[in-house]
Amino acid sequence: xxxxxxxxxxxxxxxxxxxxxxxxxxxxxxxLHKAQEIFGYLPVEVQSHVAEKLHVPExxxxxxxxxxxxxxxxxxxKYPIKLCMGTACYVKGGSKLLETLREELEVKGDExxxxxxxxxxxxxxxxxxxxxxxxxxxxxxFHGHVTPHKLLQILDSYRQKEGKRNENKKS
Amino acid sequence: xxxxxxxxxxxxxxxxxxxxxxxxxxxxxEIKKHGLDSVVKIVETGCMGSCxxxxxxxxxxxxxxxxxxxxxxxxxxxxxHLLKGRVVQRLFYKGPTGEIKPRMKEELPFFTxxxxxxxxxxxxxxxxxxxxxxxxxxxxxxxxxxxxxxxxLIEEIKKSGLRGRGGAGFPTGLKWEFTxxxxxxxxxxxxxxxEGDPGAFMDRxxxxxxxxxxxxxxxxxxxxxxxxxxxxYVRAEYPxxxxxxxxxxxxxxxxxxLGKRIFNTNFSFDVELRIGAGAFVCGEETALIRSVExxxxxxxxxxxxxxxxxVWDKPTVINNVETLANLPVIINKxxxxxxxxxxxKSRGTKVLALSGKINNAGLIEVPMGTTxxxxxxxxxxxIPNGKKFKAVQTGGPSGGCIxxxxxxxxxxxxxxxxxxxxxxxxxxxxxxxxxxMVDVARYFLEFSAEESCGKCTPCRxxxxxxxxxxxxxxxGEGKLxxxxxxxxxxxxxxxxALCGLGQTAPNPVLSTLRYFRDEYESHIKEKRCIARSCxxxxxxxxxxxxxxxxxxxxxxxxxxxxxxxxKEVHKINQEACIKCGSCYVACNFDAVKKVDxxxxxxx
Lengths: 171, 603
Ligand SMILES: Cc1cc2nc3c(=O)[nH]c(=O)nc-3n(C[C@H](O)[C@H](O)[C@H](O)COP(=O)(O)O)c2cc1C
Ligand code: FES
Description:
heterodimer, A: 171 residues, alpha+beta, Glutaredoxin, four-stranded mixed beta sheet, 7 helices, 45% helix, 11% strand, B: 603 residues, alpha/beta, Rossmann fold, Ubiquitin-like (UB roll), 5 domains, five-stranded mixed beta sheet, 17 strands, 39% helix, globular, binds flavin mononucleotide, binds FE2/S2 (inorganic) cluster
């Protein structure tokens, strides 16, 4: 991933977006959504840039970024794995999936794996409770009725796609 | 040529995730291949409700219902059903016991007990086509009320008895009247589509399956209070709903149904989408207002109510998605018709999301006053795998659990409140004998503690203290006085918290204490989890009579805790065992047993 400073085309894209919504009120959250879409996360450099463009204090931007769980100040894995921890998924074994995943990927919290491929995110109800437990990889790859076994297969399919080996096996 | 068959394919969230797209594309290819494209029409609809059977389709004129489809099934349907007129029995719905159930959608028990008002168009029209909405009476209600005075409109809604579907059940007409009376040239309507309760997907299904009904409802509300502008606040977790809303808005603008001088009257209305960013508390109305303004979503003290001082400090009406989607029907069919459905104090229907340990997980709509038993057993098809029903959870983290002795309670605002829970937004999570109620209470409290915005102390600190106690009990280290402390804390948090989140956060604990106190006590006194779900209190053993020494358990074990040679009886090393249950699942001979850990020590 290029550092944020190099990715100045990202800043251009963001500025274009901001210019387009200038006359609307209260767009800070909307702009941060866009910025996260462009950069993948919201480091301090991006936050100060947004603050300057919108003429709001940096502390306000920081306050909003840290309040909402959707925004992150750390980079995520290339394929963020979102595990639903909603009630229906919990009742149907969601915590077991989390255990499996933590054991397999050996990562804490939502930090990315060493090869940068995955990161684990516990999320709130995804509104697909009839298929509980559910797992969402990236933004669109949705899996229902997931078992630990199925979950490992999903990981493998991504590793294959990227031509990467299992991140933690030495051999 | 006239259309001979119309095929409705469900494109609700659950069906899309289970492969609807590939079924649809095969269907289209096959239809084209056989030259049927001029006589067969395919419509992608919103959620039909029977989400556990997806992908599914209904073929008209007969109304044959096919379920659990794979893309190769689409080929067979075209060749058999469409070309030769022979139904494909194999793809019919089969009951939990395997017998073939009726083949028509209308005959399935899942559908017969339902009354569709809010979900009238779901599974029937293409949500991305405004013409289909209009053809089903869409925007007629708006046209009609624009000839009325706002006062008459408010009277009509008051007469209908409609109460807000977002949780609290506040009478909608009354809320509008307050906002109408607030003097200001600038007012707002906000559609609350934050749907934060886990286990709830009613609003999602309506937004995805019938977005125009929500837009029309917003305009009706706007006309009533004198607003010219509306915001729809949708949670970021619902990308499909956002996409369909955007499309619906641009179509409505194109048709002149949004914007300036609608239907050539003096009424103008604009709508803007605002996307949430993952904070449960933003469903609470004062927090939501802050979030719409782009700020941290922290609630504020009421009064002043949003009716006086809402978004940008202007009078604002906040209504839930389902409340709004009810409005066009009430106007079209009349307040008297609407109030004839339901019970005295809860008029109309309620959309419910069934999930958890239930056969027919999905989306349903029933008249208020339907009993829990009808919902869970007749419509929901009961509990899978022959397990016993234990409780149903309603109202999410603000609600509570209802045990089986109250299954004949009717679902309406007041009956549920009497049982110590709430209707909430309509999520119903069913739990069976394998669910530990102390753990459920802990789960919800963890949710509320994490989602507490931190502004008021009772909620920020109180929920944490309660959570610590619950963790202790679940981990087998509970003390007898813990139950009293939980109750004391619960009551003081309820009385002193700033907003609805804190005021209702203790409910799951209070309700499980009320109905499942024995489970708390057995965790504390006997170190037994009745559901055998709390890890600290269970152990796995191998029955030497039944073990054939196949080694399946040993291979499944990730920590080498199973010892024994092939063809000999295996044993579990309790020190090493992490109680993951893999051996339990792997054994084909029913030899691995789950037992209470306390009994093991006595062996
Ligand atoms: C913590 C909390 C979360 C809430 N979440 C929602 C929600 O997700 N959706 C909703 O419509 N109402 C929610 N509400 C209720 C709203 O504050 C408000 O009462 C409702 O949107 C009003 O609309 P109605 O009158 O049409 O029901 C929540 C309330 C609280 C206290
Ligand atoms: S609880 Fe997981 S999708 Fe709703």
